[in-house]
Design goal:
Chain lengths: 416, 377
């Protein structure tokens, strides 16, 4: 492929993006025969729920015009399957999410939440949270006007998200924020801006998920000004491929800076082990390691003790193929040209190049803080962000190292 | 329908007997009383709503905006108990306390039309409301039981003679008519009982429901009781509902957000406090955002200054910072007030139209800020 072909490919992507926006993509679910009377019954069941209750929702399509909420500990909400029990919020006129849970010992399983105006399922503070076999979807496909998060536990402890599906979120399909002791496994995230995002979370195992057709597949982020910085995340045995959807996030949100074609992205987070994944055909880069410096931040707005540097990153045993051939945006296109030439592809790991000089000892980063790539032929490029991307270079050899494996998350809820 | 006719007939019958009906307030310690009249806090014959004896009305210095609804707030306590004064928090109300808030609008020319006014609604009386020109929508009851506070929403019937418990909430459709005659759709949401906790559980860890308005700083103001104007805290003491308080000079007082004589910063912070801080406080449901808008939150990133959003989604409006000093048009905070999309607007519950006066205040406040956001800002 020569430069002209590359340009054509880029143009093709833009045109496809415009077509999608212009026609609105697939139509929303038709609610002509939906059950509109069930809403009051379910709301009253949620109000009257007692610890230990199981609220069974029958098969059917149920329409809601306002949000649901649960405030009682120890409740299970159970449908008859993610394609059989469908809670549609297409007509929602009130509430910032479909279902808001502020309770512990909560299980939700086997149902779908569709087309909420804001977030789909939000669990705000609580322990022992199981989200299983739940589909959250915006049925019109990727659209900036979709809700932000699909499955959204935040400030939770002991969390299991499994066998669930998230489609079309304008921020993250599955987003676990400010939490502890988390397992996210066997889910499918597609056509979201971020497929799966772990943010400011301590102890997360993310495995056996499929992330495809998102803007970015799996993200491990830390943001400033929050009660808890995150660290210790293992991302393994996932299939992360062709996350090339144009970024349809809202300008101003952290994910809006994710280039289309990002496989796995670590931003400002520490102790992240990425191993044994199949990562393929993500057109910007299969793995990106970056700092808050690359996501549009301001000195004033960051708490003083916030550490923006990704440290203790260990990449090994992944099967890479394709990807890096057509990065998103002129800057990244330029970067690829410099490091790989017009016909080549970006090395599998793209690092923005920011590191904490104050942590260096005798001119070297202490071993446990390094970014280590121990992954066969895979290469690593330093984009030279601190020098305004003046001298990017492939530095695979300097990062050839390994770190002790991180311990597995111990989550009894997730016992097989 | 049969029941509704029954109620109308009953009210006509009672009205025919002459004189306003009266009721006796009571603390109902258990269960979910199906009618507002079960509580006995107020009585309505469809023409006039009258507060029962001992039921004390009050106002707030700066109230929560609720789609331009007018509000009549009351406090009542059983014989022999009283609240303890607390300086920074809501008064420490005893078990048995019943607080009500009745939401109403001046009526428009045609049914379903309600008027957007900023002054007192016609029909307001110190001891109740004349209903000729106003429409009662709902009354929310907050009762302090042994098990804690409970919130119950009641929706007024068409005859305006009583309100029925509607724990699942309600969505009513009005047309809001401004003083200039402009009309806009007003989907008015009565919260369901769980959504009440969305605002009234201001600590998202303990999740205890509590009142928000009757804190000293909010109710430290005068009220026209018909028999004379008095400071509301003193009136509470005189009614036996408050067990003393410090000198008024030492009592905190939130700014009235419309008071042209109050400093702009005080007015803005007072507005954010009552409208936002029930969630946006360091232990509230919105502490996940790192944005704290409580009255005593220090100035800095956590107040929104040059702060990046965390999980705002479409709520950013494409803007980078919560507050971009000097630039309200670049501040997410203002966007959140301006937008009516339920997925992006703030507060999340309790409004569906814009509060123009509030937007103007916060816009002015941010426009006059001089902080710089740094090199990248």
């Amino acid at each position: 492929m020569n430069t002209h072909h590359a340009m054509w490919a880029l143009a093709g992507f833009s045109l496809a993006g415009m077509a999608l926006t212009g026609c609105g993509g697939p139509a929303e679910r038709d609610l002509a025969s939906a059950d509109r009377d069930y809403q009051s019954q379910l709301i009253e069941q949620l109000i009257d729920a007692q610890p230990g209750d199981v609220i069974e929702i029958p098969e059917g399509v149920f329409a809601f015009d306002r949000s649901l909420s649960l405030t009682v500990d120890g409740v299970t909400i159970r449908g008859q399957g993610a394609d059989r029990t469908i809670l549609s919020f297409q007509d929602q006129a009130q509430g910032a999410e479909g279902l808001l849970v502020t309770a512990s010992d909560f299980t939700i399983e086997n149902l779908a939440i569709e087309d909420t105006v804001g977030d789909g399922l939000k669990v705000n503070e609580g322990e022992n949270i199981i989200i299983r076999g739940v589909r959250v979807e915006w049925t019109n496909g990727p659209d900036t006007n979709n809700g932000a998060y699909g499955i959204y536990p935040v400030q939770t402890t002991n969390v299991l998200v499994e066998n669930s599906i998230a489609i079309g979120a304008a921020d993250a399909g599955i987003y676990v924020g400010q939490s502890r002791n988390v397992v996210v496994r066997r889910n499918r995230a597609e056509r979201n801006v971020a497929g799966i995002e772990i943010e400011n979370t301590i102890g997360a195992d993310v495995y056996e998920n499929v992330a495809t057709e998102n803007t970015g597949g799996i993200l491990v982020f830390n943001m400033p000004n929050l009660p808890q910085p995150g660290y210790w995340t293992r991302v393994y045995n996932n299939h992360v491929f062709a996350n090339n959807t144009g970024n349809f996030g809202h300008e101003g949100t952290p994910v809006a800076s994710i280039p289309a074609g990002s496989g796995i992205v670590v931003n400002s987070n520490d102790q992240v082990e990425i191993f044994d994944n199949q990562i393929a055909d993500n057109r910007t880069a299969n793995i990106i390691i970056s700092s808050l410096h690359s996501t549009g931040y301001s000195d004033y707005a960051v708490q003083e003790d916030f550490d923006p540097y990704p440290e203790g990153i260990h990449i090994h045993g992944n099967a890479f193929s394709g990807g890096g051939n057509n990065p998103d945006g002129l800057d990244l296109q330029g970067l690829k040209l410099v490091v790989a030439g017009p016909l080549g592809r970006m090395p599998d790991v793209l690092w923005d190049g920011y590191y904490d000089a104050e942590k260096m000892v005798d001119g070297e980063m202490p071993a446990e803080l390094r970014i280590c790539l121990d992954n066969g032929e895979a290469g690593l490029v330093n984009a030279d962000g601190p020098n305004s991307y003046a001298n990017p270079s492939v530095v695979t050899d300097e990062h050839q190292c390994s770190l002790p494996p991180l311990p597995a998350v111990d989550l009894p809820l997730a016992a097989e | 329908m049969i029941m509704r006719f029954g109620l109308i007939a009953l009210s006509l019958l009672l009205a025919a007997c002459g004189g306003p009906r009266t009721a006796t307030p009571s603390f109902i310690a258990e269960g979910n009383p199906p009618l507002l009249s079960d509580w006995g806090m107020m009585v309505s014959d469809g023409a006039s709503l009258t507060l029962s004896e001992g039921v004390l009305p009050y106002d707030l210095n700066t109230p929560l905006f609720s789609d331009y609804a007018h509000k009549q707030r009351t406090i009542w306590m059983p014989e022999g108990v009283s609240a303890e004064y607390r300086e920074g928090d809501v008064l420490d109300f005893p078990v048995g306390t019943v607080i009500t808030k009745t939401f109403y609008y001046p009526r428009g020319e045609t049914p379903g039309e309600v008027l957007q006014t900023t002054s007192r609604a016609p029909g307001w009386r110190p001891d109740g409301l004349d209903l000729a020109d106003i429409h009662l929508v709902e009354t929310r009851v907050l009762v302090h039981r042994e098990t804690g506070w409970l919130a119950l929403p009641y929706v007024w019937n068409d005859a305006q003679t009583d309100a029925e418990l509607r724990r699942a909430g309600d969505l009513q459709h009005f047309t809001l008519v401004s003083e200039d005659g402009e009309r806009q759709a007003l989907p008015y949401a009565v919260p369901n009982a769980n959504q009440c906790a969305g605002c009234h559980a201001i600590n998202n860890t303990t999740r205890q429901i509590q009142p928000i308005g009757p804190a000293a700083r909010h109710i430290n103001r005068d009220y026209d009781y018909g028999t004379g104007t008095q400071n509301q805290l003193i009136a509470l003491v005189n009614a036996g509902y408050l067990d003393g308080h410090p000198d008024l000079a030492d009592t905190p007082q939130a700014a009235v957000y419309t008071d042209p004589d109050a400093p702009l910063n005080d007015r803005a912070r007072s507005y954010l406090d009552i409208n936002c801080a029930h969630c946006h406080n360091p232990v509230g449901p919105a502490d996940t955002s790192g944005l704290h808008l409580n009255a005593d939150a220090p100035e800095g990133p956590n107040l929104g200054l040059c702060k990046l959003p965390i999980a705002a989604g479409g709520g950013t409006g494409g803007r980078r910072f919560g507050i971009q000093p000097g630039h309200p048009e670049e501040s997410i905070l203002v966007y959140r007030l301006e937008i009516n999309d339920p997925g992006s607007m703030m507060p999340e519950l309790g409004r569906s139209v814009r509060h123009e006066e509030g937007i103007a205040l916060i816009t002015d406040w941010i426009a006059r800020m001089e902080t710089q956001c740094g090199s990248d800002g």
